[in-house]
Amino acid sequence: MAPTATLPTVRADWRGWTALAVLMLPVLLVSVDNTVLSFALPEIALALEPSSIEQLWIIDAYPLVLASLLVTMGTLGDRFGRRRMLLIGATGFGVVSALAAFAPTAGLLIAARALMGVFGAMLMPSTLSSLRAIFRDRDQRRIAIAIWAAGFSAGSALGPIVGGLLLEHFAWGSVFLLAVPVLVPLLILAPLLVPESRDPAPGRVDLTSILLSLATMVPIVYGIKELAVNGPAGASLVLFVVGAVFGALFVRRQLHLDAPMLDMSLFRRGTFSGAIAVNLLSVIGLVGFLYFVAQHLQLVVGLTPLQAGLVLVPGLVAMIVSGLVVVWFARRFPARVIVPVALVFSIGAYVLVAFATAELPLLIAAFVALGVGIGAAETVSNELILSSAPAAKAGAASAVSETAYELGAVLGTAILGGILTALYRANLVLPAGVPDAAAEAARETLAGAVAVSDALPAAVGAALRDAAAHAFDSGVVVTALIGAALIVLAAVIAATSLGGSRGASTK
User: Fold this and answer.
1) Distance (Å, rounded) from C-alpha 38 to C-alpha 16?
2) Cα 162 to the chain's mean position, in Å?
3) Which one, of 483, 143, 104, 447, lies nearest residue 283 by Cα?
4) Which secondary structure element, helix H or strand E, spans residue 410, and what is its range?
5) Taking every pair of C-alpha atoms in the chain, what is the biggest distance, in angstroms?
6) In the predicted model, is pLDDT for residue 343 greater than 90?
7) 204 CB-near residues (< 8 Å, 6+ apart)
8) Is 302 left (phi over 0), alpha (psi -120 to 50) or beta?
9) CA dist 324 to 249, 330, 373, 375, Å?
10) pTM above 0.85, yes or no
């Protein structure tokens, strides 16, 4: 049962909607940053000459720190003020991004990426939780959250396009300098338009809880990344166990504190926990889909990164439109009906990919269908997360939702990407005439096979590319069906756990 709010129901005026536009700036920036760097990595590798381990950390340092600190920063925002955390995060993110653009060594770039994760963790929960204070009317809040979710999805999908455009005209540092013109308007306008909000009875800051939270999240997130790179034979299992032990200690401490860092009673609300699970599984489905479709478009079809990004634009538009249109349905039908119906489109997208990988028009249609389902489901689930938590705990609730987003993004690559890589290696039949060194590279990844094929005699290179494409697309069939099964699980969870009254009776 949703808690009864103590705030009066006042509809937001133009200032509220202008504040939403301001809050969208960091949302777009942080989500773009999740995907844009992969396109700059080749130029960074040429300029800074990082080792293979350093290349991995250039990518991983930011999401590892970001995901590990979201709950901590969301809770601190509840205590010290969400707008204050937003402004501190924006200032730090902008300054460190500018420094990263001119990093002279790989080590300093990794350090800058880690600091960007610290400040990025201050930004995201503050934007979502501030919507609770700005939009007290539930109908308006649904629309605002739909715009917020659309902005987050749009930023992730725009990353490849923005990266392609910047790198065609500027040096690799331009992908970091992008933060400065985006965040300067935020720093000017947020103090004027975004109201300060906080928990009226926050209690003291518990350093032990903060350390236990970090000791839980860092091993789990890093373990997921280890699983994606090295498989289950690596250190991932040990990292999961370490994270689980500290997680149990964290939960035990929260249950015994008078003013816990994270109110564990939130998870006893079926609507809250169900919406978190839907978010997690939906993002796994979205990121996993993008993982193999992006490779197919670039390495099999032969599109440039910019062209591949533009092919995905119709799906991006569908995601945004469905997230806005679903608000009308949310006023009239319960969430336990809306979300499963929406996810049927995403399930259909994966089934379509499984049986029509080679057809470009069908891939575009599949991403449109996926966007329809994910866009609608995330709008409804995010609104339920905020409305089912007390207003004073909006920052912590938002942080849990954001953590589900980040873990979903990592798991999408680790689970679906790992399965696809294993199937590719199992299905690859190398043609005669491929040297041992080239064969070893070709067995590792599709990208490796395409790269070495250019150095081989024309006939042998063409045969290797065909064999690699066939092995990859064969793996996509099984991976897509597993992706469909994960979305089915999300639909079942939604149907059995989500409440959500029709109309706007619950504020």
Assistant:
1) 35
2) 17
3) 483
4) helix 394-411
5) 76
6) yes
7) 259
8) left
9) 40, 10, 12, 8
10) no
Q: Over the stretch 275-297, which tens digit does the pLDDT of each residue have? A: 889 988 888 888 778 777 777 78
Q: Among 478, 481, 350, 461, which Cα is nearest to 424's?
A: 478
The residues near 285 (Cβ < 8 Å, ≥ 6 apart) are 346, 350, 370, 374, 412, 483, 486, 487, 490
Amino acid type, 152? F
SS3 of 98-143: HHHHCCCCHHHHHHHHHHHHHHHHHHHHHHHHHHHHHCCCHHHHHH
Cβ 385 vs Cβ 400: under 8 Å: yes
Q: Which two tokens stand for residue 325?
A: 């249109």
Closest residue by Cα to residue 145 from 443, 401, 411: 401
pLDDT tens-digit readout, 412-460? 766 777 778 778 888 888 888 778 777 887 777 777 788 788 778 888 8
Determine the Cα–Cα distance for residues 378 and 285; give it in Å rounded to an integer: 12
Residue 499 is given by DSSP the state: -
Average pLDDT over residues 180-196: 88
> Are the C-beta atoms of residues 161 and 31 closer than 8 Å to each other?
no
H-helix or E-strand containing 429?
none
Extract the runs of DSSP E, i.e. beta strands, from 247-330.
none
Report which residue type is found at 285. G
pLDDT at 2 over 50: no
User: Cβ-count burial of 459 within 10 angstroms (0-12 exposed, 13-18 middle, 19+ buried)?
Assistant: exposed
| Structure token pair of residue 267 | 């998870």
Query: Which residues fall within 8 angstroms of residue 193, CB to CB, at 6 or more apart?
Result: 15, 18, 19, 22
The DSSP secondary-structure symbol of 432 reads T
> Of 179-193, 321-335, 394-408, 456-470, which gets the smallest average pLDDT?
394-408
